[in-house]
Every structure is written in structure tokens, then in C-alpha cells.
Here is the input.
Amino acid sequence: MARKLLLEHINVPGINTFDVYRSKGGYAAVEKALKTLTPEEVVEEVKKSGLRGRGGAGFPTGMKWSFLAKPEGVERYLVCNADESEPGTFKDRFLMTYIPHLLIEGMIVASFALGAKTSYIYVRGEMMPQIRILEKAIAEAKAKGFLGKNILGTDYSLELYVQPGGGAYICGEETALLESLEGKRGNPRIKPPFPAIAGLYGCPTVVNNVESIAAVVPIINDGGEEYAKIGIGRSTGTKLISAGGNLKNPGVYEIDLGLPAEEFLYSDEYCGGIANGKRLKAVVAGGSSVPILPANLFLKTVNNEARLMSYESLADGGFVSGTMMGSGGFIAYDEDQCIVRNTWNFARFYHHESCGQCSPCREGTGWMEKVLHRLEYGHGKMSDMDLLVDVSKKIEGNTICPLGDAAAWPVASAIRHFRDEFEWHVTNAYEATTRNYGIAHYADPLNAVVA
Amino acid sequence: MKVTIDSITIEVEPGTTILNAARMIGGDIVPPAMCYYSKLEGSGGKCRTCLVQVSKGSEKDPRPMPKLVASCRTTVMDGMEVKNISSPEVIEARKGVVEMLLINHPLDCPVCDQAGECHLQDLGYEHGAAKTRYEFDRRTFERIDIGDKIQLHMTRCILCYRCVFVADQITDHRIHGILNRGDHSEISTYITKAVDNDFSGNVIDVCPVGALTDKTFRFKNRVWFTKPVEAHRECENPKCCGKVTLWYKGEDVLRVTARKDEYGEAEEFICNTCRFDKKKTADWVIEGPRKVSNKSVISSNHYDTLKPLPVVKTNPVLQQANKEQFERETRL
Here is the structure.
């Protein structure tokens, strides 16, 4: 079993309290960073670790930190994005519920590296218990002198606040999050300027995912180079995967990046295979917004190589036959699931969550949802599939923020890979309302590539 | 700074947006804009009709931009090369945006007061498809009165946010805004509170469609039957410029609006007294007829007359002169 970095002590009773966390070596990274390292050295360690953003886009965290503008006399902010709302993703909530001090510790180190005197954790409004847990943890850390004025006797001071959001998916987009944090309507800003130049209250700001910030702790403890040894290629370190769907053992798993997808899915150490002895039909590998893949394409790439759980391998094949790491929301579908219904459900979500600011996304998401609803309930037409692909193309890339892309990709990929199932819903409209299409050929071995 | 738009190069100040650079060149290469309003700070970027392709980022960094960009909010870089109407990708994307804007817009132009001076109508005419592919019920709302002079017909709104910016920047305080989210979002006041600021009438002028209409003009006449005349008065309000366009039908002033430039943007904002209360010729100093583009339907009944007058009909010299004149006028 691979070594766990984030969830090592997750099963220790009382790890959510300061004392137990501290006795297990917690807050060592704060001591090390504040007493022996300069902020630049911390950034350098994170750069060396090759840590990539765990929130979805996979942008190197160290690089993001080094882009932060540092004009004299202007406040800088670190904001932790805990607005985890992607269907299928629940890793951050798990982390915050059971081991909140890891996030607090990461926040202190990261704020120190960036020179932020005030930092915020923006938590999704629905996660009220987690907000209470974090507030309690912050109070504990403050009482022990890890937050507030002159932390550990150094001249570094930090105030950390938890801000509940209103529960909107769009506020997970960094500029919408900043707007919401400022107390405005959560509409994404038009970029440029990027938050690294003008973010919260117009000051340079870094927005990082919960897991990215938590991962800073082992990076500082062990050193960036040590962290970079885990993983494969440019996907370094460990990643939390929240596995859900028709799995024998759904839950949050910490994996070394580069783990074979087949092993992750079928080994008893992880998901343990498909529940009730059924067969795998399809997989959404990284949260609802990444392209869905049929079983055969998920386990093997088109070149018949085993697919690995890493940023590169999952993206192998691009949008034609690949998917994305995303935020690690792993959803498995067994042979009894209906892809049309699932696609409609995703489209319904994006329709509901579109902020309504720019026209392609505002109108297009609703349109796609209506067409998919029609298909699912047996009123579809053969031309609907082409219509959906065309509408998704009109949305993709033409919007202010990535929500438009996120809404377009699942629809386009479902039609690309499962077109016969959609067509079956049109030709056998009545039957489609009483039973599902089944696994069909989606798990068959891939044909050899012919040049 | 040098910027090239559709192979036409122009020298502009640093900080100019692509859209404004294109407007300096003028002509067909100007991207259409539904939400951008040059007089309102922070507007733009939302409707996505002004998307353009940047095929060369700048002299220093010649890489093209990966996505189409909103020209109203992207500033030019030295040596930037932009493709608007010369890029099939842009035309395709713009078609898509127009389609999206129209799927929830009622096609009630025959009864809409904005018809004839509606930006969405022009945009749909230029870029839209003849038939809709949308087969579902359109979004509808009840009409609400915001204040005693303005009516909001939310069904027609394309959520450009211009009126929100006007309320923020021109009036003393804003009491209307966007409620809800996604395609349910609507412009509204809180529990139909009246918008009764001195400058609130400007929301009518900035509205690109017929969502915000002047209640003193509603259903009075079609704009192309009215005659626009420029006029001014000494307005008691120090913030009001008093320069307006009067829209005449016969001897009556049917409505008063701010003067609008060729992109349909008000040159200067006017107060509600000038707009709603001064509807007599005696209130105004007339400057002369307003120039209206001969492409506009407003000009169709007044300026370019195809039928020669009776005296011309009988005089071959005048007939010839009239013909030449007409050809000269319509050549552009």
C-alpha cells in the first residue's frame, strides 16, 4: 500500500482536535517554514514539488504563486476555494470534516509564502457543519499561538476567516468566488485582469483548492523533491479521489498519481469493483464536467495502453477518446444505468447553475437540457443528436468562464461515445421509458488501430 | 500602438480596446455590440456578439490567442492582428450567439416599440438564421411598471446589464438589479419599488431591445413614422446637458430621447424632466433635422424618396438631375 500523505492519520480518534493533530506531528510544517525558511524558499519548494492544482484545471500551484504581483504597500490575499459543488466530487468536504487542522496548517504556510496577512476560506453554504468545524479548529489554533499576531514568536501575523457562500456552483470559479466574498452577486469577472494582479478588493490574490493547500504541508515537511518522487511524469504526488456510483466500496481514496485505472477500479484496496457483480458500462473520471468514457476506452487508451490515474494519461486521446483528471470526482456506471438520463441530469445541473451573465451559456444550457429531457422521455427526434452537438459547440469556448465548457463537454462526449443509445431512445421511444439500453458493446475490447 | 484589424492597420493609444480601435477605422469591420456601452464604465463582455479572433498576440509575443476574445474588453497590444469578418470561425460563433440571444426573445417586433431602432433586430437581420431551431416555450414574464414613466417588459430582455450600470453611474443610487440566476434571471426592482430618480429615464435609451420602454410613448407610433429633430434647452438640472432629439409626428412631439451616435449610444445623458415633461415645441430651441443613416428604416419615409415630385415628372432636365442625384446618394 502506498504511503498516504494527506490521510495518513485520518483514522486516529480525535484527529479533528488540535492536541491529537499536534501529537501526530501536525503543525511541524508551520514551525519549519516560519522559523527556517523564507517565503521565497517555500514557493521554491512548492515549485520543485511539481504540485498541480487539485481543483480541476491542474495548473501548477508553484507557478501560480510566483505569478502573484507584489507591489509595495498593497495587501495580498490567499483565498482557499472550498466551494466544492461539482457533482461526483466530495474530497474537500471529507478533508475538512475529519482533518480540518491539515487545511489550517496549509493555509498558514501558504499565506506565509505569499506574504498574505489576511486569508479566507470560502466554504460552500450547504456545508454548515464543516464551517463550524473549521471555525472551531481556527479558534484552537489561535489559542495555541499558530494564528493571530506574531505566530510562534516570529514577526509574521495572520488572520484566517471562514466565509460561508450562498451555495452556488458558479462561486467555485475563482473570480466569481472573489465577487461573492466581496459581498456581491457571484458573477465571474471578465479576465484580464487576473486575480494574481487584481483579485479580492482589487488586490493581488491567489485562489487555491482545499487539497492543493493541504498538500503544501507534506511538501514542506518532506521537501519538494521528495514529494516529486511520488507519481509519474508531470503528475506528481498523491491525489484524493472521491469514488462514487455503482462501486462496491465508494469513498474517498488517496492514490499515488500514476496508479493504473484498472487497479483503482477493481482492487480491493480501492473501489473493489462494481457492486452486485455487475459489469462496468461507463466512467466519469473527474467530476461531472469532464467527458464521459465508455468502459473499454476508460481502461485502455486507443493505442491499447493501460490508462493510468494521472493528468496526462487520462487526457490521452484529447476530447476524441480521452477525458480529464478534473477535480477527482470518480463516478462509475454499471450496465443498468442509462447514459441519456445521466446526461440529461448533468445538463439540468448546469442549466440550474449557470449564472446568466453571458448569453451562450445562459440560453444554451437551458436549450440542451430541454432537448435531452425530450430524448429521455421518448419525444426525441433523430436530428436532436446533431442539434445537441452543434449547440454544445456554440457554447464551448465562447463564454466568460469555464462553466460553459463544463456544460458542453459531458453532452458532446456522451453523444460521441453513446450515440447508438441516444438513437435507441428515439427509435424505441416507448421501450426506452420502461427499460434501459444495457451495456451493449461499450465494454468490448477495442479494435486494433489501423493506419 | 499599431493594431491590424481585418488587414487594416491603425495607430491607437495604449489601453484602447479592440472594439474601439475598430470603431476608429469604421465600416463593416466594426464588431456588433449588444452589452458594451462606451459611456458606461465596466460594461461589456457579457453578450459575446463582439467576439473576434486574435491571430497574432503582439509584436513581442506573436502567439495567437487560444480562444475567441470579447473585443469590447480586450485591450490592444502593439502589433496585434485581429480577424473579425475575415474569420469564418468568428462568423460561425457570432451566428451561434445571435441564435442564443433569440431563442428566448419573443419575436413580437410588430407590436414592439423598439422595432426600427432595435439593435437585436439589426443583429438578427445581419447574422441570424431565417428559422429557429428552438422548439420549446419561450421564457415569459409579466410586464411591470418601474416608476410611473417606465415599463419593464422582461420577456424581451437580453440581460446586457446596461441599465444596471446606468443606475450605478448616472443616477444617485440604484434600486433595481438582477434577480435569480441563469435563464431565470431578471431585471427587477425589489418588490416593484418605483424607480424615480431624476436620471432614471436613461435606462430606456441604453436598453438595446424593447425591454425598457417609455410609457409616454408606448404604442403612440412606429419610429419610422416619426421625424427626428435635434433641439436643446437650458435645463435647470446642472447635470443635464439639455441636448436631445425630438421625435415629431406632424406638429406633436411624441417623445424625447438623448442624441445617439452611429452605434446607437447616447452622446450625453438627459434628465427626466427633459425626457418626459417637455413635450411642446415651445419648450425647445430647434437646431434642425437629425441626420439618419440611409440604411435605417427611420429614414425610409423621409429622406430618400424614390418617387419624383410632380414638377420633376414633367421636366426632362430635372428628371435627369434627379436621377443623378439619387444615384450619387445611394452609391454608398
Notes: The CA atoms of residues 306 and 326 of chain B lie 8 Å apart. Chain B has four domains: 2-97, 98-131+138-214, 223-301, 303-332. DSSP finds eight helices and 14 strands in chain B. The helical segments of chain B are 18-25, 88-103, 119-127, 162-169, 202-206, 272-277, 310-314, 316-331.
